[in-house]
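haha ok so turns out i had the wrong file open the whole time. this is the CORRECT one, sorry everyone. sequence first:
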Amino acid sequence: MQESVMQRMWDSAHLSGGNAAYVEELYELYLHDPNAVPEEWRTYFQKLPSDGSAATDVSHSTIRDHFVLLAKNQRRAQPVSAGSVSSEHEKKQVEVLRMIQAYRMRGHQAAKLDPLGLWQRPVPADLAINHYGLTDADLDTTFRTGGLFIGKEEATLREIRDALQQTYCRTIGAEFTHIVDSEQRSWFQQRLESVRGRPQFSPEVQGHLLERLTAAEGLEKYLGTKYPGTKRFGLEGGESLIPLLDEVIQRSGSYGTKEIVIGMAHRGRLNVLVNTFGKNPRDLFDEFEGKKVEGLSSGDVKYHQGFSSNVMTAGGEVHLALAFNPSHLEIVSPVVEGSVRARQDRRNDLSGDKVLPISIHGDAAFAGQGVVMETFQMSQTRGFKTGGTIHIVINNQVGFTTSRAEDSRSTEYCTDVAKMIQAPIFHVNGDDPEAVLFVTQLAVDYRMQYKRDVVIDLVCYRRRGHNEADEPSGTQPLMYQQIAKQRTTRELYAESLTSAVSHSADEVQAKIDDYRTALDNGQHVVKSLVKEPNKELFVDWRPYLGHAWTARHDTRFDLKTLQDLSNKLLEIPEGFVVQRQVAKILEDRQKMGAGALPINWGYAETMAYATLLFEGHPIRMTGQDIGRGTFSHRHAALHNQKDASTYLPLQNLYAGQPKFDLYDSFLSEEAVLAFEYGYATTQPNALVIWEAQFGDFANGAQVVFDQFISSGEHKWGRLCGLTMLLPHGYEGQGPEHSSARLERFLQLCAEHNMQVCVPTTPAQIYHLLRRQVIRPLRKPLVVLSPKSLLRHKLAISTLEDLAEGSFQTVIPELDTLDPKKVERLILCSGKVYYDLLEKRRAEERQDIAIVRIEQLYPFPEDDLAEVMAPYKNLKHIVWCQEEPMNQGAWYCSQHHMRRVATAHKKTLFLEYAGREGSAAPACGYASMHAEQQEKLLQDAFTV
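then structure:
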């Protein structure tokens, strides 16, 4: 039925009278045989929501009123108790019901999933009728079908067995019985069994499938001819990915989805860029020929590049975004989730209907990379959920050169990790495009209705090696003997269509010729591409471009308003009982806001957030202990001692304030940090913060620092203002609690790619956090935040410091010293300053000045030179650090300090005072720690 006819029926009579009867008849027919109704009606009925029950029949008044199908009143066979069996036939009836369930649970193990036909899997014994005491003599006996959705309540054993084999043992292997929710299991049973796992598609749909396969194959052949031997990680063998993606986009668009963010590694990426996103082939050819992208200092290889475009669907325009991806395979998955969450927040899309994440994986990486598990684990958590992700595994059956299952994983399938969150999994033979289309429709419908992850395991192969320069027969001889004989997916499907007389050979050839002509002419090959996209909801990054690091920034804030916000944060709901120590913290903050008590770290940090919210900047904070703060200084989330309810004062400053999101994260560094990177690259106006429980644990996310945070801008032009708080300090607690690895971050610094700061006063963290958002630069900020300084008697500030100050990259000597008498200048960063200060005061040394470098990168050479200028009589300049010599800032920053020292006075030679080089970051013995600390302080004064 044409859409215009459906619309006319709806508009003219609201489905009353004859129209209503017609729709009721259609729906009744659909319930018994979905293939018997027109495809458009079938699609519409499939997408209507369930009411929460497990049955399939529906009150027809619901159809008349709203076209909403509510599953009610289906008569279902009741389980037969073994004790109630009174006849031989009833005993067999019980066994038939057991067999039906066995097919649902294990039918996938007998399915024909491998297009190469190389899998050798024994058919499970419990799929044979004799396993249940049944014989061929019972095949024509009639049994109740129980919950089997085959359109009738009774059928012969032969009909039941044939229906089960057709549904579960052809080219689709469905795994859904591990799902606890019975409604979801019944939903899958109905959708699969009612069409025997193979719905009938119209010639128009089949023609579109063939056209998409032709495009997928055509691009690979074209590139193989034009650029032979050049790496492209081609999609040959997995061409069904292109029609699969096309269906996800079009079907989700019909649900009202407005944005889709896709993450994938290398395999098939260029094909997706051209045939799904509509990248102009001429631009791709330029990249093959080595054309440099202007504005990127390093750039990246073509199969790492991202892209965005808009395509038209039945539900309107949909924006597509392909995430930039490094070679670290699955690490892009949580980045995509973060980007999607940011887009959903921007659209106020609480349910996840408007923005959809798609993650495309390799089979070996899906099974082998731990970040996959972490990303699954975050999928239903408050702080990281995105309404369900559609996961597509391009299952080449080889991981680089590892193909034996017992070498590549310890599970039956590469997708078994998805069962940990009860995600349904559809294994599908990539050489059956119509089966691929069907499971794609199932996956989209499931995600949209249940808002949970779903996995499509596209079982295919790679026609060439790991890349086009490899010779794969050296490691997979038998597989590649078969691949050499294997006809392509397009060829097989075209033959099936011409055999069925739904398409002629001329029509098939015309699709090939048309695509080749488009490539030759450098034309876009995506027909649904929107040439002039709606840019209304695009993120405008222009305000953050072209600014120098030295640009002026004003982080001052009106004192009276600051105090008003401080008082507002202390307003607790009536009846809300805070814990005793927390009450003392709030009492002290009240005194700090009144100027009656020096300001500590927790107060200053909290006021930075409050003032930014007041100025219109949303804030998102995550970490394993972010609400309280690992060292119990923040308490941004208050917990009621009576009922365990929580209250966030920063969410209740004033009506209509920006979002303040704070989530204690699950115990992950890699996935959570990658998520926050994705979020920050999509939300430039927000302060996005990830705090490590200890700075020491940040190395669990080292891939994110290396591949995204430090180099994303220079490889891909991706700006990111993510802030990372890494608590660090030498407190005598052993190597694992003094291991934030400052040196690693400094080694990553170049070309003004990010900021590394070690603030030492409450006012410094206040202005640093405000600067991160107010200054129109979007550069990652790594903060080595303190532990003991959170409550150090000297690490204090005043209200005036907050209201009138600014972030100081270098803090000069603050005691009153005569510059002419200063002969030794100690440079330092972090907590050691206070140890040096107390030693200098105790010894009443007037010849030593101590200067703090609070920003280690970009190194503030000009500011340091200005601070050093008054000291004309310097004889010694020393860098003092707590870390061992091979760690900390010494190796990465000494050349900056030497340059400033030499410019100040040519005879100055920079000396080192600190721990000796060490394999471990710190010692584990308190007495040894104290000795080392005393020695490095003494060295700073005498070396």
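The CA atoms of residues 38 and 624 lie 52 Å apart.
again sry for the mixup
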